[in-house]
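Q: Structure tokens for this one, please.
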Amino acid sequence: LACSHQHCAFPVSRNGLCVWNTATAQPLYLSGHHYSISALSFGNKINPLLVCSASHEHVIVWNLDECTQKVQEGFTPRGIVIGTLLGMVLHIRFSPDDQQVAVCAGNQIYMLSAKNEAVLAELDGHLAPVTAAEFCTWEKSMLISVSEDRTFKARKLYLSLYLSNFFNLKVWDYSTSQLIYQSGIITAFPLLSLLIDEENKQIITGCAEGQLWIFSLISDHNYRCVAHIDLKKEEEKFCNKLVLLTFLGEEQNNSKLCKTDNTRPEGSVETSLPILLIEHCDFFVCFHNEENIYFSQNTSYFWIGTSTGLLIINLANFELEALLSYRDYSDLSIQIARQCALTRKAANGKVLCLIASMFEDMIAVLEVNLAALVRTQHSDFLPCGNEKSLSVIASPYIFPFLSNHYFRVIGHLCVCKLNYFPTGVKNTVKDKPLVFHNKIKSSGYTAAPRMAMFAPNTNLKKKGASKWKISCKCKNKEYPLESYPPIKYEKEISVTCKPTPIFCVQYSGDGELLACGQADKTVLIFNSNLTDVHNVFSGHDGAVNSVGWSHDRKWLVSASEDRTLRVWSVCNKEPALILGKEKFHKTVRFAQFYFIDTFILLCCGAEFHLLSFHLDTTKDDLKRYKQRSVCKLVQKFPMTSAMEITSLSAVNEFYSYIVLTAGSNRALEIFDLNAGCSTAVIQEAHARSVHQICQNKGSSYSTQQPEAYNLFLTTAAGDGIKLWDLRTLR
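A: Here is the predicted structure, written as tokens:
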């Protein structure tokens, strides 16, 4: 999404571009991409107004004046291709004079000419995709970049500020590609947004957990951190103040102030607060007619766009001045935003805002009355009748001749429903350590906060390890979305000589291997096409009722009716870890790895166990019978009013605190292991006991599309299959 002056830009039908002029209510449709558009940006100048769009194959600059004239003359408008096959572009930004374009593609930053196809510089210091870029206006040839390695680096060239999936910030000189400065680790979370405060010469960056960092760009300050702001705490403090002001207003003026209801309902689950946008706020322009205004004229104000609303922050005291929550507007169908964009300057005291839904192909065009918003949330201003802080232009003036799209006015909101989200933008944080240098002893951070992390010590022989590494390089099989669902089987094999029930099957994460737990007490591993038995594990004294692959595909956990649990190495037929009957009072079921192979989850009766473990397959020649792997019980979690757990589900592909259980009492219960307790219970989820819970165990948290928090799940029972929304528990 992109906003500038009186224009909004967003993709249409994935590879098309729509630029809408709010003044004339006329849309301009531009075509030139063959793949999904993944990044958009307007130029800084009004005459001519440029817009740049990027996809996997092309980076195109459009002159809107020329394109409008071409359309009026009956011709198809064309843009200037300035980059070809640069890869997945996550962010683009024009230089202050609109002569260059900074393109963040993968781990690299390309400086391109805005007039022709020419690469002026190529910067490749990051270890993960760069996600944002901003140019500095007061110092030329300087570049600042931020990445998921949680540091920032400085190089001298044309000062640009770049933000990426690596939690780090870099400052570059793009004329010489010289690295000027590299910071230490900033945060354990992905940095999603970035802005340069020209007035105070500062960098403002925000992460996926609602944290803001401000760094000084003054030469003798050495990029030191000026402030760290926890927006969650500031929002809570601000909401408490609103409640107090409302109470005082009712007593003194017998009138009720408008307030934002941000109190969390009892029993609800706390979510993260990703900072999607940081933008300058044209604060005082909206109060030019106000007298006795108490706000300091020398203070800078900034918009903070999050997934749940818009905030205005005062840089003088680092406190919130106003808060607009999407959920407070019943007519607004988007309550959780995936992306947002704001106009930097207000027009007639109003700011244009675009938000895209996280779960639907929907975009909302908002018009925020800044003065009305601030008045209703400060005791210094009296309530001004029914003045509304949020509105939009009526739908008949928006895209009047788009019959193939769905538009409707929801109160004061116009919603445009279209095929918007490009699949390529759903880039995710890779599940790997956040520090990649071998000589670093300890960073003190991990991608999962407030939890002690453990890593299996395989100690595999080089020959076996290299064989596994080579096999894992096979291309993952992806299901063709355009095809019909599979209705015919391709192959049928007999796993044993005599009829034997198979109690459980599970593919490895890369789809190359299939594990089967059988009633004859064995575990078989087949290759994906079922042409060869990869391995056979035997040792259980009862039927194997569950199997689970590790995230790195090197380990397999199995549980049996003999009340034992075993962890197997794919490269060795001997179990690496055995937990015997003395550990469990009932049959062990639904064993799986959890939290990216940090823990093991299993069910035993009406409770599930969280186990930490360390795997070591080496043997002592004198004590070959003694296993060197260890396992320790962390905590037991009993299910409410259930005799037995009938199904369990948790995500191991990325860090998630959520564990879902179903009981014999036909209830569905949600546990938050970060809080260490049950957070919600759905009574009578089915007419019969749930025997299967399914979550989307796809990729990890994306800085552009945060999906680590799975909000939808499917349950299966004897009475049918249901799809649940965890936000509403319906």
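A few notes: The mean pLDDT is 77. Residues 231-252 form the longest helix (22 residues).
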